[in-house]
Amino acid sequence: MDQHYLASLFEPQSIALFAGLPERQTPQAQALLAHLKAQQFKGVIAALDTGTVGTLADLAQAKADLAVIALPADQIQAALELAGRIKVKAALVLSTGVGAAQAAEMARTAQRHGFCLLGPNSQGLQRPHLQLNASAVGELAAPGQLALVSQSGALTAAILDWARQNRVGFSTVAALGSHTAVSLADVLDFLAADRHTQGIVVYMEGISNARRFTSALRAAANAKPVVVLKAGRKLAGNAAAQTHSSAIVGSDDVFDAVLRRAGAVRVRSFVELFSAAMCLASRYRPVGRRLAIVTNGGGPGVLAADWVSELGLELGVLGPETASALAPQLPANASLSDLIDLSEDAGAEHYRAAIEAASKDRQVDGVLAIYSPKFGGDADAVAQVLVQARPRMGKPLVACWMGDASVQGGRHALAESLVPSFRTPEGAVGAFGNIASFYQNQQLLQQTPPPLSSLAAPDVEGARLLIEGVLTERRKVLTEMESKSLLSAFHIPVTQTLLARTSAEAMMIATQLGFPVALKIDSPDISHKSDVGGVALNVMNAAAVRDVWQDMTDAVRKKRPDARINGITVQAMARKPRGRELYIGVVTDEPFGPVIAFGAGGTMIELMNDQAMELPPLNQFLARRLIERSRVHETLGDWRGAPAVDLAALEQVLLRVSEMVCGLPQLREMDINPIIVDDKGALAVDARIVIGPAAQTSPGRAGQYGHLSILPYPARYEARWPLKGGGEYTVRPIHPDDAQGLQNLVKRLSPESRYFRFVSSMAELPPAMLARFTLIDYDREMALCAVIEEESTGEDGARQVRERIVGVSRYITNPDQTSCEFSLVVDDAFAGQGLGSRLMLSIMDVARDKGLKEIDGLILTHNEGMLRLMRSLGFEVKAYPDDPDFKLATHLL
User: Fold this and answer.
1) Fewest C-beta atoms under 10 Å: which of 45, 282, 634, 712?
2) Residue 541 gets which letter from DSSP?
3) What is the mean pLDDT of residues 435-448?
4) Which fold has domain 496-573?
5) Whole-angstrom Cα distance, residue 50 to residue 370?
6) Is 420 exposed, middle or buried (0-12, 13-18, 19+ CB in 10 A)?
7) At 717, phi and psi to the nearest 5?
8) Where in the chain is the domain with CATH 3.40.630.30?
9) Which of 380, 379, 417, 398 is nearest to 293 (CA)?
10) What CA–CA distance (Å, rounded) separates 280 from 615?
11) Domain with CATH 3.40.50.261 in the chain
12) Euclidean distance between CA atoms 255 and 587, whole angstroms
């Protein structure tokens, strides 16, 4: 049952074709028939008509994996019913203009008959290795290892036209269209495990289920490079924002953060998408950001170097030893100080020597070769150097062949050999930047933090009671006092703040706190206090406190006569003269839920517009990367005589904010501005929090973390159990760091055990499968591993303790969202010690906790041990009608 549920859609052996009568054929049907006639599909195609009559026995003769329907809108429903009667497993509807109501009815029909539905309004799909062109977007693409998934048929046709001219092939082309039942997330999920696909290009316009999309994108990007172009970018400004964070963070910024955390790369233009497609087709997987530039002209090289700096990359400079060895092989005028400028006298052999040297240098992560036409030069010969070098290089190699007529031959040779070639230095550097971003984002993808950090436990219950109290008053905005109380519940350091309801109280409080003090208006109706004259800093004595009280109250009532005023808060001025004013915020996005923002703070926060963002939950690695992405990061070290700030304290505050976001679903917006950080620690001076209904990132699936796009590591499922014969083991959810441990388990299995689990004789898991098994979405699947600790002695004689995975149970939620499919494997050395039973009972508990109703799995008929285990656990074991080699084991949860 490891076969993906979309396999019948993308790997059909037989097709039932509904194209209608010639006099009533739609444009999509005409294009479809022409394309099917142009290529001979490797499977079987049977034409059917909605007017087909006969008995069910007659219809059984027309059994097919996939129904392809290209009919007028009023005939589609009848075709879907007929497709259901002949037991298809998937259907594709090519059409335009079908509305949401009719599309929903089609989806219900597909669900009732138990098949997946791509469409309506789809422009079809292509699988070149099957010679299948079930589309209306153009002739069949050349075979390749790149998949294209698009929500626009017109854009799909344009990309395929470009690909033909640039010799880029595809494994899959899917033009989804609007209102399709099979979503973008579903297709990404299939491509993640598709052995024909090595890279994925996505054009998208919108999503309906943020959790599902993020999960599928993370799974796909963990297995292979994914590049995304999204239309519909929104301006960040929001006049109705109640916090600074919400004012400066726009939905497009959040989408950037989602793609980073998912390990994918975003491009901003159609041209960049093509550039990225060329790089993905070349199967480059870089390991850094340092790009060496080899050029025969100083001007183009300098332009490229400028763009390297502009994109935040680094110029790859040859090490002294490499440069010394290379210099004698180059023309006398060559320069190796930063650029590898070969001079105008450079020929093919000089390029060969320079590229070889750069490819071996440890200070270089990629090579850009620029060729400018010169009198007596040979662009074709230099291109052949790159063609020959590419298969031997373990680093990305990109080319820029400037000019036109004289370099056409070289460009064609580079394209034939899948060396990405560009007309401008900026385009070539940008292409390398995209694949370098992929590497950086992969580091973020591997992080699976728990909802709570390892710091002292926060008072989550107290925080919830505070929020409930505010909600009962039908308020959404917490006062400064309430906001700081919420921060204190999560151990975030705040300035001591007391509320004074009269000027006399204010003077007494100020005297006790010690001067100077800050006075701030306290009102649930005023979001930005300084805008209405509601803030006074450095008030030096009691008389001044009295005067400020009166002036502030009068000014606020004049500007906001409708505002409720609780009084004025008094707090001691933060004594951090060398501190940096920063801000930490939270904004809730539709549809991705809460996002944590960080940047420069103070009164000019919107003007500075310095925001770096990350999706919760955070760990220390993610918190550090979030800080590093901000512009204010440059000021956090030794700066203008001030010592470096306590970064560990700042990271702790970010981890605490992450805990707040995970534990308080009603937290909709938050500003901690400013938070002052110096070498002694961090202190939140002002805070503003907005609460409301929890975000819903996955319609229909709430749960404890239904407001998050990325589920935290579910530490609550960890448990320790005794081993028969002594010792103990831990059952816990799997995480990405377990990849090697899982591989070691598979290698230790006997050939028979491996075959029982994978129905394959493979000796180890392929990288894509290993990634798929260890980086999982804890919402729609779960894998629990049994782990024991083994002691060993290192070379230095020190005692070492290592974890060993000795068993794994797993379930994956079925498309019906009510049942799941299980698998189980136990190390042969631990058979008969109760691990299998415990792993199955534990995985069933998790499935039950997720609200699933049934668990099932396929077991090979001659796997007697597993069949006995399932029966002992109360599973019903029966014949599997589709394959006599398997038994189906099911259990109600």
Assistant:
1) 634
2) S
3) 80
4) Dna Ligase; domain 1 (3.30.1490)
5) 60
6) buried
7) -95, 5
8) 715-892
9) 398
10) 26
11) 286-419
12) 13
Q: Give the confidence band of 284 by pLDDT, cuts at 50, 70, 90.
A: low
CA 869 to CA 305: how far, in whole Å?
Answer: 64
SS3 assignment, position 653: helix
Query: What are the pLDDT digits (tens) for 842-878?
Result: 999 999 998 899 999 999 999 999 999 999 999 999 9
Hunting for tokens 């949401």 — which residue is that?
100
Tokens at residue 547, please? 């005067």
Nearest of 255, 262, 269, 272 to residue 207 by alpha carbon? 255
Confirm if 37 and 131 have CB atoms less than 8 A apart.
Answer: no
Helices in 166-209 by DSSP H: which ranges? 184-193
Going by C-alpha positions, the residue among 153, 127, 118 that lies closest to residue 27 is 153
pLDDT at 609 over 80: no
CATH superfamily assigned to domain 715-892: Gcn5-related N-acetyltransferase (GNAT) (3.40.630.30)
User: Between 33 and 590, whose confidence is greater?
Assistant: 33
Highest mean pLDDT among 503-517, 524-538, 596-610: 503-517
Residue 702: predicted pLDDT: 58
Handedness of CA 845, 849, 852, 853 (dihedral sign): positive
Tell me the three state secondary structure of residue 430: helix
**pLDDT for 238:** 42
Q: What architecture does CATH give domain 286-419?
A: 3-Layer(aba) Sandwich (3.40)
Q: Are 561 and 213 in contact (CB under 8 A)?
A: no
pLDDT digits (tens, 9 = 90+) for 805-847: 999 999 998 877 789 999 999 999 998 889 999 999 999 999 9
The shares of helix, strand and coil residues in the chain, as percent rounded to the nearest 5, are: 40, 25, 35
What residue type is 577 in one-letter code?
P
Structure tokens at 540: 């030096």
In a 3-state reduction of DSSP, which class is residue 89?
A: coil
Burial 672-697 (b: 16+ CB within 10 A, else e): bbbbbbbeebbbbbbbbbbbeebbbb
Interior angle at CA 13, CA 8 and CA 15, nearest 5: 80
Query: For 26-82, how does the pLDDT look when each residue is reduced to its tens digit (9 = 90+)?
Result: 999 999 999 999 888 989 998 887 765 444 445 556 689 999 999 999 899 999 999
Phi, psi of 108 (to 5 degrees): -65, -40
d(CA 291, CA 288) in angstroms, rounded, equals 9
Helix (H, G, I), strand (E, B) or coil at 597: strand
Three-class SS state of 428: helix
Amino acid occupying residue 307: W
CA-to-CA separations, 681 to 28, 648, 675, 765, in angstroms, rounded = 65, 8, 10, 47
Please count the other Cβ atoms lying within 10 Å of the Cβ belonging to residue 715. Answer: 11
In this structure, what is the dihedral angle of CA atoms 623, 625, 627, 631, given to the nearest 10 degrees?
A: -160
What is the rounded CA–CA span in Å between residue 367 and residue 301?
12
pLDDT of residue 286: 60
**Alpha helices, H only, 327-375:** 348-360
870: three-class secondary structure by DSSP: helix
Q: Residue with structure tokens 């977007």?
A: 137
Sign of CA dihedral 836, 837, 842, 846: positive
CA-nearest of 670, 839, 701 to 241 is: 670
What is the DSSP-derived secondary structure letter of residue 798?
-
Angle, helix 503-513 to helix 542-559, in steps of 10 degrees:
130
Q: Is 53 exposed, middle or buried (0-12, 13-18, 19+ CB in 10 A)?
A: exposed
pTM of the model: 0.84
* CATH 3.30.1490.20 placement within the chain: 496-573
The answer to whether 632 and 600 are in contact (CB under 8 A) is yes
Q: Judge whether residue 471 has pLDDT over 80.
A: yes
Please give the structure tokens belonging to residue 520: 């701030």
